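User: I'm curious whether this sequence folds into something compact or stays loose and floppy. Could you predict its structure so I can see for myself?
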Amino acid sequence: MALNATLVWEIRTTGAQTNGGGYKPGASGTDYSQQAAAQYALTTVTSAGATATMTHASAAAVMVGNTCRVVSGTNATLGWYEIISVNVGVDITVDRNWCTGAVTNGAVNVGGAFKIGGTLDNDFFEAKVAGNTIWIGPGTHTTGEGMTPTPAGTSAAPINVKGYNAARDDAPTGDNRPLINVGTSYWNDSGGYRNYSYLRFTGSGSQHPFYTASNSTVSNCKGTYTGTSANVVALSFSGVSGTTFINCEASSPTGYAFGNAAYLVNCYAHDSKVGINRPGIVTGCVIDTCQTGIDIATDVTSCYNNTVRNCLLGIEAGGTDSGFFINNIIADCVTGASLAAVENQYWDYNCWSNNDTDVTNVTKGSHDVTADALLGSGIAEGTDGVTNAAPGTTFTAASNPFGSVTTSDYLNIIEAGTGATLGVYAISAVVGAGTLTLATSPGASKTGIDYRIVLGKDFTLGAGSPAFNAGLKLGADVGL
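Assistant: Here's the prediction. I'll summarize afterward.
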């Protein structure tokens, strides 16, 4: 036998690595997974030989349906098991053999939520089977090791990993979503058919904070990369086959916000070297303050109803590409869309707004509009940026454009001046209307730097916008 496909698991910051952690809905017992401590901490479990039966006088009918963790014992096989039946006061039958021979003084915990933060993190996720659901409770969950879970779901029975705030299925938003902090490690899920929802992931190492496999869906999640390594992806898939991001948000100032997805729907990519890398279909998304907004590479891509703003290159492609680009707003970019050569693409009904250059090797459609889109957030920009001597994190501008800037905004250096490094920079302090402190240095003692900062996160259209229904609609939300 094996663990049941209908098992539901619980993770809490108050749980324990050695708790049982799961329960089968509809079982005849009592669900003890939704509590901090194990309901039963058995220390004298025995077995006469290799068997699925655990002998203990505390065996109780209420245990049925719970999962237990075999913690220790000579000849015991450590792991998680489902309690199938109980002979009250005598023994417990689990879903498969729990030992390879006779056991004395076996330690087994029944019930209690699992806790992320130790050497059993990956083991816990590896123990799952197709159809299982894993609930992750509120708070910050800091992983204790690199995560490489491989079990896959199926198209009919995916493995679902869901966050909640106050109660299961309450669909939290913003910072109410549980945070999984992988630190300098990683979450590399290669199983496939695993769906993640209502979670936040953050990391600062040299690998992607969150990475999952094909035929998976990530919805209402946020990924943030805070390190300095190049080309790290905040939210990524291993391939584009059947993969989808819905209502997600991601940022990676030195890398990619989103990577390798067949579909991106109502997502928010911002403050990144590349907002969206190698997508299939992008719709209803905002891509803001990136060096490259959407990098098509050599793939077939379709983009419609998106807003791309404040990028060095709004949409970029090289090689042989095809696709259609309809009803988008491309605003405040150095170049709105740039292709390596004229390709077989369809561009129309787009609004080109305040770009230095709208297009290179792109033929605008007959219904395209070139005018101010009247987006909700303003923009601070100039060509008079200066950095101080090493470390060069003080950024000044004599035109004093920073009066409305906050530390939630990001500086995008779009032309290097005397040698500053192009890129997106976090603002750690607003010293005054003409002075910022940056989190990292774009270069010391540089002058004449071209920069732009979007003031706020309102990308809806103002009254009278010539963009009509392009980009986001008035009052629309992306990400969460």
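Summary: DSSP finds one helix and 40 strands in the chain. The mean pLDDT is 92.
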